[in-house]
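[Q] Does anyone have a clean structure-token version of this?
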Amino acid sequence: MAKAAKKSAKVASEDEVGESPIRSLSQLAKAEAACTRCPLYKHATQAVPGEGRTDARLMMVGEQPGDREDLVGKPFIGPAGAVLDRALADAEIDRKTVFVTNAVKHFKFEQRGKRRLHKQPNAYEIERCKWWLHHERTIIRPAAIVALGASAARSLFGRPVTIGKMRGEKQALADGTLALVTIHPSYLLRIQEDDDKAREYRQFVADLRLAARWLVGRSA
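[A] Here you go.
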């Protein structure tokens, strides 16, 4: 019993970001590259670290890398990234000022012939990868975070989140950081009807504009 308690205490200590020697994004990327905290590393090409300025006031957290991100090693450079770029521009937000990352750093997929089809990360994988997201937040210290989709929201809030119930409302995380929940840009790619897609896109841009307005009232 005592041995089990000691093991439990060790795990808790390892998950305390304050105990980690990681203090920079380059150190973090190196550590993420060696990550074995969940089984996803076994099949992914590489870990995909977050990207952006260390003084970014706005952080955007997606779900996980896609196929192209997994191959190149950069976040949001595939089709969903193109949608995000366009929406940021329409919301008058310079992507170069935003730190973009994912709740899960390895690509989870199902092999279908030569294609790798995206699979949603489960609760265990999201929980294990929170270690890296906590490090990113500690280094960047953003004033506001946009959760792009349910997996990102679950990672940030530590519980399942219904997008429709929380979307567009000002939330506060445990450390006081402002948070906004919205859709993942990949959702827009799956909408077939043009009118529906245009309506959802306008709402997505409105969500991003709202997050940008929050920053105006907060000092850098």
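[Q] Thanks! Anything notable?
[A] The CA atoms of residues 23 and 171 lie 27 Å apart.
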